[in-house]
From TrEMBL:
<protein>
    <recommendedName>
        <fullName>Xylose isomerase</fullName>
        <ecNumber>5.3.1.5</ecNumber>
    </recommendedName>
</protein>
<feature type="active site">
    <location>
        <position position="99"/>
    </location>
</feature>
<dbReference type="InterPro" id="IPR001998">
    <property type="entry name" value="Xylose_isomerase"/>
</dbReference>
<feature type="binding site">
    <location>
        <position position="230"/>
    </location>
    <ligand>
        <name>Mg(2+) 1</name>
    </ligand>
</feature>
<feature type="binding site">
    <location>
        <position position="307"/>
    </location>
    <ligand>
        <name>Mg(2+) 2</name>
    </ligand>
</feature>
<feature type="binding site">
    <location>
        <position position="266"/>
    </location>
    <ligand>
        <name>Mg(2+) 1</name>
    </ligand>
</feature>
<feature type="binding site">
    <location>
        <position position="294"/>
    </location>
    <ligand>
        <name>Mg(2+) 1</name>
    </ligand>
</feature>
<dbReference type="InterPro" id="IPR013452">
    <property type="entry name" value="Xylose_isom_bac"/>
</dbReference>
<feature type="binding site">
    <location>
        <position position="337"/>
    </location>
    <ligand>
        <name>Mg(2+) 1</name>
    </ligand>
</feature>
<keyword id="KW-0859">Xylose metabolism</keyword>
<keyword id="KW-0413">Isomerase</keyword>
<keyword id="KW-0119">Carbohydrate metabolism</keyword>
<feature type="active site">
    <location>
        <position position="102"/>
    </location>
</feature>
<feature type="binding site">
    <location>
        <position position="266"/>
    </location>
    <ligand>
        <name>Mg(2+) 2</name>
    </ligand>
</feature>
<feature type="binding site">
    <location>
        <position position="305"/>
    </location>
    <ligand>
        <name>Mg(2+) 2</name>
    </ligand>
</feature>
<keyword id="KW-0460">Magnesium</keyword>
<dbReference type="InterPro" id="IPR036237">
    <property type="entry name" value="Xyl_isomerase-like_sf"/>
</dbReference>
């Protein structure tokens, strides 16, 4: 059965297309800098927002009516698999991501939850085999159930730690079953509400203990997805331990996890941390730890995680520039951790929103490729740091100077000539690549 009877396969129709159910910029087979757009972008659809989000907010009831709702939670879960793959196929998206509880109902016990996961992942696997669609990453939801009120691995209760460990084990088992390329840890409630009753060091040691168990189990079952930490500064915790890319890297390095862990960076999490998205991507690149991205955008007027579909070309251009500089994002991808607005409640909005996000990233890719071909930023930076290419600068970089030799140099060097950045000019020229 088709859940979107009136919507066909979405094709690229070019910039002037009038058809709302067409790509105007994302042309999957078009070659950009030697690779197809599809290879550059590696889009993924997020099960949680697209299949389970109901449009409710703290002030209002669900607004989304979905035709895959069944009589029982399991019937709904089965219908969702059908509807989800219909969306992926019609959009031409080749990857997807999910939390365990997105795909299968928890039931009344852990045993029942695992049995439900087995049934649903059998159906998912069948669909994957039929369509060639792949699993970018899965994760365990260790934040929604009330047992996780004090955290998961960071919980003050050891039984909760054990329950979380069981969910991660199952997560890795299904990652192996479905050939998952990455496995994500977003520390939903791994943070604290008040330091008055929190042993921060102990809680972080425990998170590292769980991560090391995950690495060991992956080795044991012969399945090694790229592990990823997804930083976020706040919400739901007042203070989340993986605050931002730099904080997560300090954690990875402190516990010696560099060989197995990279970062999954989310645009809206970056802005909540007071950073731009490109800042977070750049920090990750500095550590060779750019793993994957959650594509969305926040509302700058609001202080919480709105997970909007990305429509800001300036932002996607700078994000794609970082990805190009990284040599691509594989085995990661661009996962739309984005949800339709509460007021965009019709089924077809799911398509319109993904088309908007994919087109916005495709525009960003094209602009970033032009910036790279023109060596736009390279030239600006080469000029800015030119004093390190010759003379005393080259000697500093080569490690041939010390405080005494530089003092001798400075005492003799009477006039320092510092140049302007001309930053307004740079920003205006950058606009030429967008419009
Ligand atoms: C929450 C968030 C999560 C993670 C996966 O803000 O981004 O959906 O991406 O747990
Ligand atoms: Co996310």
């Amino acid at each position: 059965m088709a859940y979107f009877e009136n919507i066909g396969k979405i094709h690229y129709e070019g910039k002037t297309a009038d058809n709302p159910f067409a790509f105007r910029h994302y042309n999957p087979e078009e070659i950009v800098l030697g690779k197809t757009m599809k290879e550059h972008l590696r889009f993924a659809v997020a099960y949680w927002h697209t299949m389970t989000q109901d449009g409710s907010d703290p002030f209002g009831n669900p607004t989304n009516i979905r035709n895959w709702w069944g009589e029982t939670p399991m019937e709904t879960a089965k219908n969702r698999v059908e509807a989800f793959f219909e969306i992926l196929e019609k959009l031409g998206v080749e990857y997807f991501c999910f939390h365990d509880i997105d795909i299968a109902p928890e039931g009344d016990s852990l045993e029942e939850f695992f049995a439900n996961i087995d049934t649903i992942t059998d159906l998912i696997k069948e669909k994957m085999d039929q369509t060639g669609i792949k699993l970018l990453w899965n994760t365990a939801n260790m934040f929604s159930n009330p047992r996780y009120v004090h955290g998961a691995a960071s919980s003050s209760n050891a039984d909760v730690f054990a329950h979380a460990a069981a969910q991660v084990k199952k997560g890795l088992d299904i990652s192996k079953k479905l050939g998952g390329e990455n496995y994500v840890f977003w520390g939903g409630r791994e943070g604290y509400e008040s330091l008055l009753n929190t042993d921060m060091k102990f809680e972080q040691d425990n998170i590292a203990r769980l991560f090391k168990m995950a690495i060991a189990y992956g080795e044991k079952i012969g399945h090694k997805p790229q592990f990823l930490i997804e930083p976020k500064p706040k919400e739901p915790s007042t203070h989340q331990y993986d605050f931002d890319a730099a904080t997560a890297m300090a954690f990875i390095q402190k516990y010696g996890l560099e060989g197995d862990f990279k970062l999954n960076l989310e645009a809206n999490h970056a802005t909540l941390a007071g950073h731009t998205f490109e800042h977070e991507l750049n920090v990750a690149r500095c550590y060779d730890a750019l793993g994957s991205i959650d594509a969305n955008q926040g509302d700058p007027l609001l202080g919480w995680d709105t997970d909007e579909f990305p429509t800001n070309v300036f932002d996607t251009t700078l994000a794609m520039y970082e990805i190009l500089e990284n040599g691509g994002i594989a085995p990661g991808g661009i996962n739309f951790d984005s949800k339709v607005r509460r007021s965009s409640f019709e089924m077809e909005d799911l398509f319109l929103a993904h088309i908007a996000g994919m087109d916005t990233y495709a525009r960003g890719l094209k602009a970033a490729a032009a910036l790279k071909e023109d060596r736009f930023f390279d030239e600006i930076k080469e000029k800015r740091y030119a004093s390190y290419q010759t003379g005393i600068g080259a000697s500093i970089v080569a490690g041939d100077e010390d405080l005494e030799s530089l003092t001798d140099y400075a005492l003799k060097n009477e006039e320092i000539k510092v140049e302007s950045n001309h930053l307004e000019f740079v920003k205006s020229r950058l606009n030429d690549y967008l419009f």
